[in-house]
């Protein structure tokens, strides 16, 4: 397999799905697939980290299984839990059977009573490798992060009642982090790593153009100029790429052919998601801001 060609194919495949990859990210995605190692993507909110997993699954023709992390996430939510109602019903049905207590116990802890959650589902696919997205791992507790180490290193999960379940097809694992806290060295050692930056001006113009091919180029250019300027300000919520696209779509829906003070004032809620940020921009003067840019 020629590495250069395959990296190029990945970039071209993503491009056809309206996601523009730079060479470095295309290369690390290729290495993730070739080496079968998890990939940790860090970066500011809104730079497209989660979208990478979705587009990768679409490119490979497989499913994406998403685990959204949060504080207090536990094994039962992320890995598995038992269908207790079904187990109780089975116990009642077996009360008059001649089975031994051990046989009855083994029966109710069989696969038919097991409810698969995202992590177990990802390693149990009998036909192909899914894309497993562990989203915002930095929001989970350190204890849960430690639990992930077995999955990320050996692609297996231990269930006390059943033993160790190994992956039939290793999932392609992408972890994302907004870096609200530092992740452990043990987790990082098991992953390839890439920091996802906000796109440069020309790249962001191309991204918006990909999603809105029927909008005037001049207004796209002005939209991106404003969004990139807003990212340099001290805002509560910095606009991401999704906001650039949403803003362009909104202006198009309202029939605007150019970006002026009226258009921006009317659609500020598409790019700024905080009332304080909107008040701050309006107080500074939208007309003055556009003239400055």
Could you say which structural class the secondary elements and strand pairing correspond to? alpha/beta
Determine the fraction of residues in helical runs and give it as a percent range: 40-55%
Radius of gyration of CA atoms, rounded to a whole number: 24 Å
Order of helices and strands: HHEHEHEHHEHEHEEEHEHHHHHH
> Count the strands?
9
Distance between the termini: 47 Å
Largest sheet: 5 strands, parallel
Mean pLDDT: 89
pLDDT < 50 stretches: none
Strand order, main sheet: write it out. Answer: 2-5-8-1-9
Shape: elongated
Description of the structure:
This protein is α/β, with parallel strands linked by helices and 293 residues long. It contains 15 helices and 9 strands. It has helices spanning 3-16, 23-35, 49-60, 75-78, 84-93, 101-108, 118-123, 142-154, 185-189, 201-211, 217-230, 241-253, 261-266, 275-284, 286-292, and strands spanning 39-43, 64-68, 80-82, 114-116, 131-135, 156-159, 163-166, 172-177, 192-196. A 5-stranded parallel sheet has the order 2-5-8-1-9. A two-stranded antiparallel sheet has the order 3-4. The longest helix is centred in the first third of the chain and has 14 residues, at 3-16.
